[in-house]
TrEMBL record:
Ranges where the HTH araC/xylS-type domain occurs: 8-106
Record flagged with keyword Metal-binding: no
Keyword DNA-binding: yes
The entry's keywords: DNA-binding, Transcription, Transcription regulation
Record-given protein name: HTH araC/xylS-type domain-containing protein
Amino acid sequence: MDLLHDMNTAMKYIEENLTREIDFKVVARLAHCSEYHFKRMFSFLARISLSEYIRRRRLTLAALEFQNHNVKVIDVAMKYGYNSPDSFTRAFLNVHGITPSEARKNGRQLKAYPPMTFQLSIKGGTEMNYRIVEKEGFNVVGVKYEVMMVNEILTPTYESMISAISDNEMKELEASSNIEPYGVVHVSVNYSESKEGKATFNQYIGAATSKEPLEKYSVLEVPSLLWAVFEIDGNWEHVEEQWQRIYSEWLPSSLYELAEGPEILASKDQKSEIWISIKEK
């Protein structure tokens, strides 16, 4: 498959440039997709952000450097993109559980994160119900959260975000829903990654509406976009499974890639829809 070849060509470039500045525009060009598409695809398939994967690979190689007892910590730090021994030592300790100086000692246990490649996995051909929708811009009104993801852990968690919204507020939001996607919507937008491996995004829990919002709620203006809309019956496990299949099965085999826009989960009457903003390849 060309997609697998392109993704692995991009991964090879990353591996060969762990001691240099990695140009994500080059990564995207090698993968024949946008930088945003590659990062989001990677985070869904690998379950960690691309920047976190690169950080772990660099610190894996850095640990091997200390088998040479004459190597200086500052030299290894600079080689793998750290501006000071202190910042390198903190990152090294976070991954390996010991300091670089301790790593020099014989018999100390270290962690290794091997290079990652993408492989084709043949699974049961379960159908996916979807439609392509071209939709004018609309507003989402609701509660806004600034979310950070480190080592696959969200802060705040989805459970705490939802529990912070009162029953009355949830009823207000649900009642304000009068345009697609209908029902209570969970919107993720403005995804970005830092060199330290942290991923951040804005999360809105609210409703798509044309009504005037109450002052206590935030408003997200969603621009005109092309959407792939997937229908799901079932509980949260089915929703999570469908998210994974969209990224691992549908997108790679489609004529589309991700557009830099929101990702929406809409729920109403025991049914859910996933809205993914897309553009033609």
